[in-house]
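ENTRY TYPE: protein
CONTENTS: sequence, structure tokens:
***
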Amino acid sequence: MKKIFLSILLASSFILTGCTTDNIATTDEKPVAINKETNSYTIPPTNTLVINAASTSTSPYLLLGNIIFFPDKENNNRLSTIDNSESNDFIHQSSIKDIFEYPVESLAAINDTIYFSNGSDGNTLYSLNYQLNEVQKLNNNYAFNLTTNLNNLYYINKSNNDKLYFYNTVDFTSGIITNDSFGKFIISGDYIIYQNLSDRATLYSVKLDGSNRLKLTDVSVDSFITYNSEIFYINSDDNNTLYRLNPTTLKSNRLNLVHGENLKTYNDQLFIIDYDNSNSLSSLVIDLENNTATTSKLINYSINNYFPTSKGIFLEKSPDINKTYILK
């Protein structure tokens, strides 16, 4: 039976749709340490960028134990759950276990706590302790593309010119990483690699503490990944062609002609929305020695977006945007 947790949970304590700033967790929303807006650029950039073997990026599909949390497209993107043993070609309404009364745009998790942008309250930042059924509003920022690293949340604050914010879930401090406007971003070790909307969507990096801000490309990028200690990116200025970037020399070169968008990686597997295969999802194999890449078509239909996880790839199918498909 579907359970509407939050309406029961909060009826006797506080109603989220009517909450005020008194319900917001105590935070310091001013930038801290070197992240202060007045001195974001006082630390001179150095030509150093260390690529970590793994990187993290945003995804609206979260796995906690045997449960998958996701925004249900057929129910106004309300936060919902399914058992991860489900193997349907798309998520059926009969498979949904829990429904929460919040449309969500972004999701992230640290331990047993889920963090989300609450669409019923201006996409501001909230937390949900799933085990205790406790919900709390954290701040008034429009939090977009939530990502985690240790005890920190990172998100684009659309209330403040798309700047990247952090929120520490232990001491409740928050601040701005840099004054740039952010597009897509990933976290690789101690670095954030990002699409700088303040500079034509060119590629930049900055350390998590706001230091060592470095421009990586002179061309606009669509998407990018870290792989084998290098960066691979889609060059928007060259017909969305695949390029590689050496993080030490900052030199780029084009691989053989692979065209697409939404380049992503998961567990050393590479994926791309493949322009040469009718915008379908393809796997990508890169031959570093020969500087070549090949794609292999995975599905027979076009998609708008996809999110790889350990339980399958969640797909947004172009002709049917109101359902979430799963590729096992």
About this structure: Residues 303 and 318 are 5 Å apart (CA to CA). The chain has one helix and 24 strands.
